[in-house]
Amino acid sequence: MMKLSALQQSYLNRRPGSFRGAAPLDSSADGANKSPAAVFWLVLHGLCCLISLVLGFRFSRLVFFFIFSTSITTNTNHFMAPFRQLTTTTTAADVASDLPSNPVGDAALNGTRVVVGRHGIRIRPWPHPDPIEVMKAHQIIERVQREQRNQFVVKNPRTVIAVTPTYVRTFQTLHLTGVVHSLMLVPYDVVWIVVEAGGVTNETAAIISKSGVKTIHIGVDEKMPNTWEGRHKLEAKMRLRALRVVREKRLDGIVMFADDSNVHSMELFDEIQSTKWFGAVSIGILAHSGGAEELSSFAAVEKEVEEKEKKQAIPVQGPACNASSKLAGWHTFDPQPYEGNSAIFIDDRATVLPMKLEWAGFVLNSRLLWKDVEDKPHWSRDLDSVVDDDIESPLSLLKDPSMVEPLGSCGKQVLLWWLRVEARADSKFPAGWIIDPPLEITVPSKRTPWPDAPLEFPSDNNEKTANNMEEAHPVVKHTKTRSSRSKHRSKRKHEPKTVVDTKQQSEQN
Amino acid sequence: MEIRNCVLALILCHAAFVSCAVGLGRNPPTERISGSAGDVLEDDPVGRLKVFVYELPSKYNKKILQKDQRCLNHMFAAEIYMHRFLLSSPVRTLNPAEADWFYTPVYTTCDLTPNGLPLPFKSPRMMRSAIQLISSNWPYWNRTEGADHFFVVPHDFGACFHYQEEKAIERGILTMLRRATLVQTFGQRNHVCLKEGSITVPPYAPPQKMQSHLIPEKTPRAIFVYFRGLFYDVGNDPEGGYYARGARAAVWENFKDNPLFDISTEHPTTYYEDMQRAVFCLCPLGWAPWSPRLVEAVVFGCIPVIIADDIVLPFADAIPWEEIGVFVDEKDVPNLDTILTSIPPETILRKQRLLANPSMKQAMLFPQPAQPGDAFHQVLNGLARKLPHDKSIYLAPGEKVLNWTAGPVGDLKPW
């Protein structure tokens, strides 16, 4: 395997006498006198050099072995065979030739088919990729990779029971669509229990039906209050309602709380499969400022930054483990930097703070909720004994909170993110996000080469408002006066457009 | 009587069947390796043999190592680590009268060039001098003329002590070692430099370095065939055809533009990581048939494709290499792609499961400190399997079988 480099070769060549294997050469090296033998060797050497030059390779070594192989008793076959090879190679001395075959049969006398010496380099007639072989190789690779994936798949996967409290509002579609997409990607069976405040509506039903998973849509009559505190309380009640449904229907699987504005990673669903009874995962808390920071002065911002550097609070809520990977406590979100600045009403432009321990960070085996299950652990409370008003986090379902299993490498992996983003309280959005009847044109787009002149307008066009305000001023007035009746109707329905119109009016005035 | 025999036979058959079924049942993703001699990789040699380590003057071992510390990291470092392992192993005995095997710690592969390659020119003299020492100071050499002694000779062609194959063949195994057991990396059937009863070991590969380059097992294997190394050795074989018996050059010429073959002469820093992303790793011969690539392929779970006619792989009596690697004749190299793609996927998956077996990986390594099942223990297992010694190895006092003056004149000079 190892061979000396050229440098070493030259080092060796400086001491030719002791390292040439064949004995007679020693005498030639030693002899400094011009004996006829020495001259003869010199001439022969020169001749060999010339022949090698013509042929293109050094064949003097092989000739020596051939000539002196008779003096070496044991290994004649090894040295004879290369010479026979030599005769076949003289016809095609080019390295890149393909040879018919190795003269292996002769060496078989010695019981081996491996011979020392120069061999030809075998190249097949068309040394390029064969498409059929390439296809087969890709199929092999695909099979190998499939086997690799199967090693890490969960054995005996259980159904994921997702519980989502929701209510109709501007951002509902945005949030629920995210949950719909996450649940569609889950590789296990999913049962989605959607609990709606204010009763079951078609809007919500339309969104959740697109998920393709089995859904249970429940309505709770109470309307969602517009304070965060009230909202948290009602959501807790709604979740308990869902848990009661799980109990009644005896749904089997793992219950997780998929709040509609949270973002879930796919690893979360794989990780919760390993829950035995009650597990906890780490949530990343994305408490954003809601724009409040713009109002503070520059100095205040600098101070905040300094304070933040001192504290380095990690925005994660979840189980904390000690050195032996056992549950030792809980990481909670530190609300202190936001004291006094937090949002109270749902549409406040301030930071929304999470509760001490969010429901979304807990998962439980649905059997904990069933009646009459023998092997239910004694440290769990029966669902019927839980009073609705008193429950803040699912830990209240347990008598002994230390029995919670920390998931996701003992809480080191953040598997989902908590986010609360809501629109202003007075924001309106089209029902089902379908614009009906179609919007009126307020401003034509400047650059489209419409055949109609910009001044002529039919009463209802389907074009939407554009940015270009200045040119359209006279036009706006025109349309307003002409199609006032339909405009009035549309004014009530499409309020954002009204805002634009009033703005234009004020600019004009 | 007949009925009893039948019942006994039935019970035995049933037991065999059950054990077979149990063996197959607990498998994904690894499979038990049952070699030709049974499940021998996990045998424990302690208690089965006793080894006596000769105390040689430090000029044979420590001083050589002090002159050049690189000997601890190159692929011939097995001789040094074997010595260290035996010194502190439970199989060592300080009483030579009860020893089954005798070990002579002489580092013959530690005379390095500035580039780091060992020069074998003084090794025969060193070995001869060591043997003269032990035969004159202890009676155990003369008792058997070395038949119950073992030596570690990890150089290119083992105890032939030369790097060029023709010269090595010409020298043959050192006369004095002709009765001893040789532990060597070189192995080729019907070759002068592999004597009957030798134990083939893998070359040394640094276990820490390989462990530090492991990537997650989930990483999908997307490279079909992987190889990094020389195809032509322009320095020593300018006209081509000598190096690797033309096999490496054939691989290059036939597959250099084939997208399935990730082969080149580069030295990437991600060499180990790449091997873990490949399905097949080529292990062609070079100037000698063995290579550390085999060890690397086994450790990283890449199926070794061995292109070396008549090679004898490490621990061949304990590891069923035919089931783990793919053997390709040198003459079949132009059809390598057809050969590899025509292997059924189930066979490939089975080979990968066998490679995933931790005892397989352990057997290829020389970890410090030694761990159960590693290459040191496999060597001891091999030695233990040769016991008890045949009575014929013991010579009558004064009887001499080896010719101490045979060999080239240069070998007879004192060292």
TrEMBL record, chain A:
InterPro entries: Glyco_trans_43 (IPR005027), Nucleotide-diphossugar_trans (IPR029044). Residues 475-495 have a biased composition (Basic residues). It is an enzyme of class 2 (transferase). It is a single-pass type II membrane protein. SUPFAM superfamilies: Nucleotide-diphospho-sugar transferases. Its EC number is 2.4.-.-. Residues 445-509 are annotated as: Disordered. It is found in: Golgi apparatus membrane. It comes from the Eukaryota. GO terms for biological process: cell wall organization; glucuronoxylan biosynthetic process; plant-type secondary cell wall biogenesis. GO terms for cellular component: Golgi membrane. Belongs to the glycosyltransferase 43 family. Involved in the synthesis of glucuronoxylan hemicellulose in secondary cell walls. This is Glycosyltransferases. It comes from Linum tenue.
From TrEMBL, chain B:
InterPro entries: Exostosin, Exostosin_GT47. One of its GO terms (molecular function) is 1,4-beta-D-xylan synthase activity. Residues 48-343 form the Exostosin GT47 domain. Pfam families: Exostosin_GT47 (PF03016). The keyword Glycosyltransferase applies. Residues 1-20 form the signal peptide. Its main location: Golgi. It is a single-pass type II membrane protein. Keywords: Glycosyltransferase, Golgi apparatus, Signal, Signal-anchor, Transferase, Transmembrane. One of its GO terms (cellular component) is Golgi membrane. The keyword Glycosyltransferase applies. One of its GO terms (biological process) is glucuronoxylan biosynthetic process. It is found in: Golgi apparatus membrane. Belongs to the glycosyltransferase 47 family. This is Exostosin GT47 domain-containing protein. It comes from Linum tenue.
